[in-house]
Each structure stands twice: as C-alpha cells, then as structure tokens.
Amino acid sequence: MSFMNFNKSTEYAFRILGFLALDERKIYSTDEIYNKVKIPYRYLRKQLTNLTKKGLINSVQGKHGGYRLTKKKSEISLYDIVVCMEDGVLSNECFFGYTDCHLIEKCAMHDKWEEISSSLNNLLKTMNLADITRKEYPAFF
After folding, report:
1. Average pLDDT in the 115-125 region?
2. Which one of 12, 17, 37, 130 has the lowest number of neighbouring Cβ atoms within 10 Å?
3. In a domain? residue 139
4. Rounded Cα–Cα distance for residues 139 and 135 (Å)
C-alpha cells in the first residue's frame, strides 16, 4: 500500500465483500455479484477464487451454489481484508518512497507519517463489514 491508496484487488475485495455482507445468509451466484459490483467478469472470477483461498468467503458448489462470507460481517474487519489483499502487511513505507529511510536517518516526514499510518491501521481494525453496510450509509452498489 503506498500513500494511502489500496491496490485494485483490495478495492474490488471491499466491493465484493460489502455486497455479500448485505445478506449474510444468502448464497450469491457469480452472475448476481457481477451484475451488482461491476467488476470485469474474468477479474471477478479471479477475485472470488482469491477471496476463497484467503478464507474470507466460502464457495458453495452445485446448481444453487455461489459464494457467501465465512464469518459474520461484524467479525470481518477492514484490516483483515486489507492484510489479505495487500500481501500480508500494511506497510509503513517512507512517505517519500525511500526504502532505507528508517535505517539511516529519519526523513522530515517520518514521525508524522508513522502517526498517520498507525491511525489508519487502528481505524481499519475497528471498522468491519457490518459498519460499511449499515442502512444509514448510502449504498455503494
């Protein structure tokens, strides 16, 4: 993750999981997900496979198969999603993009950037899928 932007896979994971969280009990077909989240179909299939492998969703086989969350939406934090999709870590990369900033000398932004990064991590840990699918928030589908 660089400068507060998530990669495209993470953005799509939020959209897919947010949609599945609208009704935790329902099994959603790939076509149903595709029609709502508007992700290119081939990429959607890849994302569904990836989210299944990462343990965030279950794949249900059969005529009425599809996908659903592995846990209650209140138990899946946004941090969990980001960590799964951003290769296991929310990095504390240098604000200026230096790879050895903290090893040699702190840059001018180091302490502030570390504070912002820590705040973002804490926010993501305290918010979950239930929070982003509440009725009082505008739907993102």
Report:
1. 86
2. 130
3. no
4. 8
| Residues 6 or more apart in contact with residue 25 via CB below 8 angstroms | 68
User: Does residue 55 carry a pLDDT above 70?
Assistant: yes
pTM listed for this prediction: 0.81
Please, what is the end-to-end C-alpha distance for the chain in angstroms?
25
Place of tokens 């949609």: 19
Percentage of the chain beyond pLDDT 70 is 78
Query: Residue 64: which CATH number?
Result: 1.10.10.10
Residue 40 included in any domain: yes
d(CA 131, CA 1): 22
Distance of CA 42 to the CA centre of its chain: 19
Q: How many domains does the chain have?
A: 1
Asked if residue 77 has pLDDT above 70, the reply is yes
